Amino acid sequence: MTPAECEEAIRSALPGFSFERVTGEYHGWSFWTFVVDGEWIFRFPRRDGEAQQLEREFILLPTLAARLPAAIPRYDYRGEWNDRPFGGYRLIEGAPVKPPPAPGDATLAREIGELLTALHNFPTEMAASRWSEADPGARWLKQQRAFQAECAERAFPVLSPRDRMVASDLFRRFNRELCNTGAGLTVAHCDLGLEHVLGRDGHVSGVIDWSDAAIGDPAIDFAGILGSSSSQWLHLVVEYYDRPTGDHFMARVQYYHRVAPLHDVLHGLSIGDRSIVKAGAKEFARRTR
Questions:
Q1: Helices 231-239 and 106-120 meet at what angle, rounded to 10?
Q2: Kind plus residue range of the DSSP H or E element containing 5
Q3: Torsions phi, psi for 62 (to 5 deg)
Q4: Domain 95-287 adopts which CATH fold?
Q5: What backbone phi and psi angles, to 5 degrees, belong to 274?
Q6: Where along the chain do the CATH 3.90.1200.10 domains lie?
Q7: What is the pLDDT of residues 26-73, one digit of tens each?
Q8: For residue 25, which of 53, 52, 8, 44 has the smallest C-alpha distance?
Q9: Could you tell me which CATH class the domain 3-90 is placed in?
Q10: Residue 100: pLDDT band with limits 50, 70, 90
Q11: pTM beyond 0.85
Q12: C-alpha angle 138/141/142, rounded to 5°?
């Protein structure tokens, strides 16, 4: 999607929204994202799956925003382009936190710990009702097993024999010991790398990119933090997390952290980008040494 197409889509779908021009753009794997007049963020899903994720954001984020100690997107504008929804929210001040944080940066660790406490305290029954999920626990496990099956079918052939064996062992242990979280499922961001945490003047100012949010294992959010920091700094975040962590907490964090690059492998295979496949396989090998 080009900036010109973004402008055309907004003017066509949202005639009441007055703006001058697209002033910036940055795109991820799932969304085209544009900055409008330096004040608004507009996100356009690339595929039908991401369109459904955006609809889930529309449903949950207005209620969630009031319960968190940092800003999150508030979609003031919604439209449709190419038969898919898109949304616009006022830009949240701040820049992505640059990893790795300083080992002694207790302020940032405390604020992320408090943010995760508030997020994971959000009533799961409320989220399940809004998302019309009758059995979110079964849905979460089904997603994890589907990921494992897809890895076995599509990712394993491009991994080394050693890495295939390691991945199989990780999946077996998860299914045998770790899928029962002990502390129960919570609303989780599910992609909480530091690149999605905005900072300003040494404090957390916001959290963006909620398209993967789900009722799931809270440990996955700590895995995202570990992926862009260090074990030492992660433990500092956990010190400020005021919730029970359940059985095998660090083992669960490590599991989600270690298998995360396999998502990159699958994505690279889906779009035919061998560089992403190679990078994901290399990172998986590094994390599981």
A1: 60
A2: helix 3-13
A3: -60, -40
A4: Aminoglycoside 3'-phosphotransferase; Chain: A, domain 2 (3.90.1200)
A5: -65, -25
A6: 95-287
A7: 888 899 999 999 999 999 999 999 999 999 999 999 999 999 999 999
A8: 44
A9: alpha beta
A10: confident
A11: yes
A12: 80
